[in-house]
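$ fold --in a.seq
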Amino acid sequence: MTRATTVSEIAGGLAWSTERHRPRIGLYAMDTSARHDGPLSDQEFDQFRELLRRYCAHELDQWESLRTSTPYGPVYVLFTRSLPPDTAPEAYRTF
């Protein structure tokens, strides 16, 4: 993940943390400059899942909002430690 053009463009002036090149609260853009064609292999998906679990266990504070570009348009991802209002836990599949 890398810093977007400017933090103020993304998050309305949030302070940028030099530690790990992330903003101090959860909003940043993913670096999609390295192009990989096709879906993830089984090995890549397993690695992605394990890294995401580790990230959620050790890095995620309250929430994290991410945005990335795809050939089909932007994708927005929200990680949070609480369910959205009026949402049942069964609405989510185990990862």
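$ fold --in b.seq
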Amino acid sequence: MGRKKYLPNDASFLMHTAVDEKSSAPRPHLPIPRKVCVIARTHSANQDDWMRAYMYSMKSQTMGNFSLSLVNTDTGTHDTDIMTKERERFSRLVESMDDERITLAPTLPQNTPDTYGYVETDMELARLLANESCEYIHVSNADNLLNRAYFEYADEYMRRNIDLIGVSFVLHHARANHKNLPITTKFSMGNIDLACGVFRTETIKRCGITFLPTTRIFEADWYFFEKILKCPGTTKVAIPEVLLMHQ
């Protein structure tokens, strides 16, 4: 038995339940949502249960027109045995999702520990940009939780071809001596998380945007946003609803 197949979006969202007077078929309601290709970065700090919870939050999206590639960004070794065991571990994790939309990316660790997995991230980004079905890109460290309506909210703006879409989020790190505070997303350093963003593929292609090179590796996520914002003609929108829990 193969892995479960899913409609490109939630059927109840796409179709009215009422029956057309001249046909027994349901009437179309809204167009098929834009296709989002997801890069889920993993590294040694990610526990399997965190990644599993993240992927379940993807599986539960009310609009399911996405594909997710789990990218092994565990860098720093050429040990064949270790790499093989890690790939087997991630393969088992992906298989446990029983969802054909969730796959293990073909990208392999490149033994570049000082880049914290951004070499592999850029490699997977290039692979997805060559896929004509990818209309938008979403990148996460695979330890966040998405509200099930995340892509449903974003799709309103994806269908308007907005280049950069951001959602508000709950921040795990302490701010004003408190953790788990809701943050209204702003397109500025410290006020947005990588997983808050949905990026238009054509804009990334047009301006040749990648994570590397960067002069400040620990701020590479923010500088990815900044590169998009500096791309001529970029349109952006910040969604006020809190749709992501940062871990």
